[in-house]
């Protein structure tokens, strides 16, 4: 289903649910109100909230097992150290990213907010939503476990879905939290950041070792498989490529990975000539009258012969002159006879063959070798491949026919690595509504409570948060500006 249509249906469903919710509440419909209370559901305009206390007992039990208590003590102490190291780094990164807006292009900005449909393809919204729920659940689980460890009451946990973007949350007893030792409080406050850091790291390791993990079902380093193609792609279709095709060679360039795929396509721009046997050329030549085109190229084929291409004969020594300077040849037939490639500058060919350059304005001739398929010949642009096809280095061994499964896992790991790290960085910065707000006020209390009273400390931490919140907002606006306008 089209993603926009899907989002519209969700929007209509939200409006209907909101209407019925308001209606039943306005007439104090008892079974409905009882249902909301029983399930912990709250319905807002384009958002849903679900709260539960069902996990409180399990959390408490887990946190109070003696071996777990020791482990959690070490675990969240490391988390505190990691978060305190991250704090100055995150502040510097934010300032650096803000400065980057003024001195370089936005594309290279280290901290960039991502909004599906604006600077993230709307089609990837499911990856984004799944990542948000995984990152936020792990983050909140950190706060909850650390709170249980420090005897702070967990009131409830829940999930808020903003349209289709889910975010988990945990409510702690704030009086409990304020009354405990500041270092213990810091462990609870930094636990979410610590879990995000760790999640990012684990997913990054999994991302790096994915070829080994998936080696049971997928080969890597042996070619690329097509796993996505735009509807407009001239390469897909009758006698062309198909989704799942595994490409191993383009002209004489071996394709092994995604990088070599791009390199091979670009190499065709330079090595655009082919080495032909003079006998085959004589046999297939269909040259008509030579015409000099405004582009500087020469046309020697009749317009009616669509599959024919005019080639210029170039020879380093100029010794063989039995062949005309331009020959019109059926491209597919002559290409299937040729295995060697050359360029106009360095037209080296094996003995007995000579270099011929196709007279094409910007286009090139491609011979694509795909596994279990006859060679595919294509005349067009390098960009036709790069812009309309997406390839994967994961070649299915058996069962899977396309690399979609491997690519889905890879993309998910990419998303979690980047977004989880981003959440850790943004959360530790002293901004309002972030963990950083409470972390900085606790740190100020620990370092300045002897020389400053509570009101002054509150004022100082509010000032710091105000400055960094303003910096973050300015940075987000500057980064998103080119995408919106
Ligand atoms: Zn948090």
Task: Map the helices and strands.
Blueprint: H1 3-26, H2 30-39, E1 41-44, E2 47-52, H3 56-64, H4 66-103, H5 125-149, E3 154-162, E4 165-172, H6 174-179, H7 182-208, H8 210-213, E5 218-219, E6 224-229, E7 246-250, E8 253-254, H9 258-270, E9 273-276, H10 278-284, E10 291-292, E11 298-299, E12 308-314, E13 326-330, H11 331-336, E14 341-342, E15 354-358, E16 364-370, E17 376-380, H12 382-388, E18 389-392, E19 395-396, H13 404-428, H14 435-448, H15 454-484
Antiparallel strand pairs: 1-2, 2-3, 3-4, 5-19, 6-7, 6-18, 7-8, 7-16, 9-14, 9-15, 10-11, 12-13, 12-15, 16-17
The structure holds zinc ion.
Short key terms for the protein model shown above:
single chain; about 475 residues; alpha+beta; 3 domains; 6-stranded antiparallel beta sheet; 5-stranded antiparallel beta sheet; 15 helices; 19 strands; about 50% helix; elongated; binds zinc ion
Describe the structure.
With 485 residues, the chain is of the alpha+beta class. It has 3 domains: 43 residues, no CATH class; 231 residues, no CATH class; 170 residues, no CATH class. 51% of the residues lie in helices and 18% in strands. It is built from 15 helices and 19 strands. Strands 6, 7, 8, 16, 17 and 18 form a 6-stranded antiparallel sheet that branches. It has a 5-stranded antiparallel sheet with strand order 13-12-15-9-14. Strands 1-2-3-4 form a 4-stranded antiparallel sheet. A hairpin with a 2-residue loop joins strand 3 and strand 4. Helix 14 runs antiparallel to helix 15. The two termini are 29 Å apart. 29% of the residues are buried. The model has no long low-confidence stretch (mean pLDDT 88). It binds zinc ion. Zinc ion (ZN) binds next to helix 5.
